[in-house]
Amino acid sequence: MLKQLPLSNWSFKQRDSTRSIQEDFSAVSGWHPAHVPGTVHQDLLASGQIPDPFVGLNERDVQWIGESSWLYRCVFELTPDILTPGALALCFDGLDTFATVWLNGQQILVSDNMFLPQRVPVETLVHPGQNELWVLFESATERAHVLKEHYGARQTWNGDSGRVYVRKAQYQFGWDWGPCLITAGLWRPARLEAYQHRIADIHCPAEVTADLSSAALPIQITLETRPAEGDAASNLLVQVSLYSPEGSLLHETLLSFQGNQAHETIHLDAPQLWWPNGYGSRPFYRLVAALQQNGETLDQRELRLGLRRLRLLQEPLQDEPGTTFLFEVNNTPIFCGGANWIPADSFPPRATPETYRALLQAAADAHMTMLRVWGGGIYEEDIFYNLCDEMGLLVWQDFMFACGIYPAHGWFQASVRAEAEANIRRLRHHPSLALWCGNNEDYQIAQSINVYNPAFQGDFTDTPFPAREIYERLLPTVCETIDPTRPYWPGSPYGGENVHDPTLGDRHVWDIWHGEIANYHAYPHFPGRFISEFGMQALPALATIASFASAEERYPQSRTLEYHNKATDGHRRLAIYLSDNVRVPANLEEFIYATQFIQAEALAAAYQGWKRQWKGPGRYAIAGALVWQLNDCWPVTSWSVIDSHLRRKPAYYVIKRELAPLALGLERTADGVEVWATNDLNNPIEARIESSVWTLEGEHLDGGQRPVSLLPRQATECGKFAVEQGHPLVFGARLVVNEAVVARKVLWPEPFKYLQLPDPHLEITRLDGERLRLQVTRPAKGVVLSSTQEVRWSDNFLDLLPNDAQEILAEGVGAGEVQMRWLR
Question: Does the model's pTM come out above 0.90?
Answer without folding.
Answer: yes
